[in-house]
Amino acid sequence: MKGILFLCLFIGIELSAAGQQSGNTQAQRSFNNAQAFLDKGAYEDAAVQLQQAIDKDPDFQLAYLQLGDVYRRLKTFDKSTVIYLKALELNAPVDSRVYYSLGESQLLTGDYTNAQKHLNLFISTYEGKDQKILVRAKKYLNDCSFAIEALKTPQPFQPQNMGGNINSKYREYFPAITADGRTMIYSRVIDGNEDFLISTRSKSTDWTEAVPLSTNINTKEYNEGAQSLSPDGKYLFFTGCNRPDGFGSCDIYVSHKSGKKWDRPFNLGSVVNSKYWDSQPAVSPDGNTLYFSSNRPGGLGGYDLWKTQLKKDGTWSAPVNLGPEINTPYDEHTPFVHPDGQTLYFSSDGWPGMGNKDIFYSRTDVSGNWSRPVNLGYPINSYHEETGLIVTPDGLNGIFSTTLTDTFGELDLYSFKMPVVAKPKQISYVNGTVYDKESKQPLAAEVLVVDLKTKKTQFNDFTSAETGDFLAVMPVGSNYSLNVSAKGYLFYSDHFELQEKNGNKPVELIVYMERIKTGSNLTLKNIFFDTNMSTLLPPSLTELEILLGLLRENPKMTIEIQGHTDNTGNDVQNMALSNARAKAVYNYLLEQNVEAERLKYKGYGKDKPLANNASPEGRQKNRRTSFVVTGI
């Protein structure tokens, strides 16, 4: 609520210029002393002097009004409310903006009915030309109306302190968690220095005692905070302020985890960062979109949410404002994109709420447009400032920072059950490790996961030779292809159908990559045909392109494309169908300029089963398209 909130700050000073004085010399002296402190911005000292003026002259209305203004400036709204009411009890005429100041103070202490009364009184009596204050007053009235209704339908809310392994006597905030829910990175401030801590857990254990993150990221010279962790835990986007390589007051940086070690972070550059305040990054689960808050020009309010997208050449695009669907003429902060890729949580004091910054959520539709933000409701939101929410990958819990009776220190991390309506979409994930089939050693490889319904790349990254591990998020409700590729190896092919009725059980996967050699055989699990048809369906293109890339990378490699069926139906027809399907793949490769002498195709019908045809699962495995390496 910067700037706009205090448009009418220090009404008392204006009245002083109009000649209001105290008849008490000592009171007037204290009042004059307060003016000197105000000129220096020493508001606490000014408050002391104004209180002394009131003590010496209880009828000194101007001192009351100025003290109320000072308390508003210090955001001690409970005190400003009391002081403004005492000023009004003196029954002397006041500037109508005093009703605005009192109404705002009451709004921000949860006294919504009286705030409504005084804001309406201000609007009905104000004769000034400042339209901004009228707009703000009407906005506050909307907040009052929303809050009064929200209090009637409270949401279940029982925040639980995350315990002494996470929290301390210091300030903890801005949590980030991996998609498997086993790693959390968050910020802690010690002696004014903000650094990252990391805690882990297995499926059945509590969080371990947090330890500082890598010294490649944490520094003694600068503050690191307001971070976002990619779902696989390999990329950490964060905010760094006042650094020598910065472009503005605060910039966005990124560090990559190579094997078990974090690389030194680097600035995202002048395309993303500006000479203004760029902070609070939130990376999408596919890693291709980065959301952040900024006060750069071109926005709708003071601080807006923006996005930049990763281009094919590895650089980021010029940021784009999220527009009036998300942003308001006021402030939007702390974006968080759930691993479902469709639900955005953020804080705002512009949308109707409980008075200060509230937490909202919005979802994208099939066209990628954001829905109107929805307030999480009371008491998750209150007249205090709520900000910095994340939601666990399973969608069950929210995690945020606050101060409650069982807080260990200044600010602790708490979790709470998410309201059903505010939960994100279900997700699953594949947690895999890639090995060389012969040596059983971890392998550096490219992993590609594609949503076959939308043709959108869901995950595309490289494993390290040190660990070979990867974690790819897959929102429930679609079908996915998974391919793993490494130079000199046959690629790996897998397929996942994730329907909501089947829940979101994650996939644990060990991938053994086979070196290319004559006789190697690979089933193409993402080649699709309609029943009894041999025309390739569009979702097949993803895997066909990978096969094409393998052939281009190995120009002396020759293959036989094979079609197979189960044992149901007519043998002659099955043989013909399997042959036609193999030929469809053969024709595609020819159309892509693969030399005909490198390709053969043949249908084998039911003759080469992989599994017993007695079960539906076995028959499904036997209906397939594959290829065998015939030369290299």
Largest sheet: 5 strands, antiparallel
Uncertain runs are: 1-9, 15-19
Distance linking N and C termini: 68 Å
So what's the overall shape?
A: elongated
Number of extended strands: 32
Mean pLDDT: 93
What would you call the structural class? alpha+beta
Multimeric status of the protein: single chain
Strand content: 25-35%
Supply the number of helical segments.
Answer: 11
Can you give the helix content as a percent range? 10-25%
> What Rg, in angstroms, do the CA atoms define?
31 Å
SSE layout:
Elements: H1 11-17, H2 25-40, H3 43-56, H4 61-73, H5 77-89, H6 97-107, H7 112-125, H8 131-150, E1 160-161, E2 171-177, E3 183-190, E4 193-200, E5 211-212, E6 224-229, E7 235-241, E8 250-258, E9 261-262, E10 266-267, E11 278-283, E12 289-294, E13 304-309, E14 320-321, E15 332-337, E16 343-348, E17 358-363, E18 374-375, E19 390-391, E20 397-402, E21 412-417, E22 427-436, E23 446-451, E24 456-462, E25 469-475, E26 478-485, E27 492-498, E28 507-513, E29 521-524, H9 541-553, E30 558-564, H10 571-591, E31 599-603, H11 616-622, E32 624-631
Helix pairs in contact: 1-4, 2-3, 3-4, 4-5, 5-6, 6-7, 6-8, 7-8
Features:
632 residues, alpha+beta, five-stranded antiparallel beta sheet, four-stranded antiparallel beta sheet, 24% helix, 29% strand, disordered N terminus
Explain how this protein is built.
- The protein is α+β, with helices and mostly antiparallel strands.
- The protein is 24% helix and 29% strand.
- The longest helix has 21 residues, at 571-591.
- The protein starts with 10 loop residues before the first helix and ends with a strand.
- The relative contact order is 0.07.
- Residues 1-9 and 15-19 have low confidence and may be disordered.
